[in-house]
Design a protein that fits this description.
The chain is built from 7 helices and 11 strands. By secondary structure, the protein is an alpha+beta fold.
Length: 237
């Protein structure tokens, strides 16, 4: 049984070592239950197509790293030793896939949070909360934590680099390099009904802009799943 969303959100933490590295870091976590998953459809297509048009207008032909917030994430990656030109922050990776054909359509829920990510220029991760073991924690990795992923279509278990910023739970790493790559265990699928969404922000994004992105994601989720319930919690230093 999925843990009560309010209690689960209350247990989420950002480790002081992460806050020391980037004192400007803030996040909003949304816990959504009663979602109607499934393959991409006309409703999720409309959300994503509108967001792609918005993102193209904002980019205006510029590479994503020239925008202030994606640029800030590159700096954050370098601060813990990652090379952002090789392992890109998630929002930059999405923005780079806009042209010529737009983003891949994955499933209703993933399409919705990808749409908000590119429209608001924020890294957003979405995961199946029912697959979590305990609360979400943002920490600097020791290096021994398991990270389950796939390589060549086969399941493999890797590990983060010591000092890397990772989201984790009691079972291991759920997302490496802050928002670069999610694990296979908590991946959203067409059968997902309970999810957590993590919206990441650094300066110059304001608290009001972060809240507006959380509002937009809540609205998108309820448009796809009118009977869903959504709770949120803001995390900061």
């Amino acid at each position: 049984m999925t843990e009560d969303p309010r209690a689960w959100l209350a247990a989420a933490v950002v480790d002081p070592a992460v806050a020391d590295l980037r004192p400007d870091y803030r996040a909003v976590l949304l816990a959504a239950d009663g979602l109607r998953g499934g393959p991409s459809d006309t409703d999720s297509e409309r959300l994503l197509a509108d967001a792609e048009a918005t993102a193209r207008r904002v980019l205006d032909g510029r590479p994503p790293e020239q925008l202030p917030h994606p640029a800030a994430w590159r700096e954050a990656y370098r601060a813990f030793g990652a090379k952002p030109q090789r392992t890109r922050p998630s929002v930059e990776a999405l923005l780079r896939r806009l042209d010529p054909d737009g983003l891949p359509r994955i499933d209703r829920i993933t399409d919705a949070y990808n749409a908000v990510s590119i429209a608001h220029l924020l890294p957003i991760g979405g995961e199946d909360r029912a697959a979590y073991a305990g609360a979400a924690r943002l920490v600097r990795a020791e290096g021994s934590e398991p990270f389950d992923t796939t390589a060549g279509g086969e399941p493999v278990v890797g590990h983060p680099v010591a000092g890397e910023i990772v989201w984790r739970d009691d079972a291991g790493v759920t997302c490496r390099r802050w928002n670069w790559r999610q694990c296979a265990r908590t991946r959203i699928t067409t059968g997902t009904t309970s999810a957590v969404f993590i919206l990441d922000a650094l300066d110059p994004v304001t608290d009001d802009e972060l809240s507006a992105a959380a509002d937009a994601l809540t609205e998108a989720l309820l448009a796809l799943s009118p009977d869903a319930t959504v709770h949120r919690r803001a995390l900061s230093r």
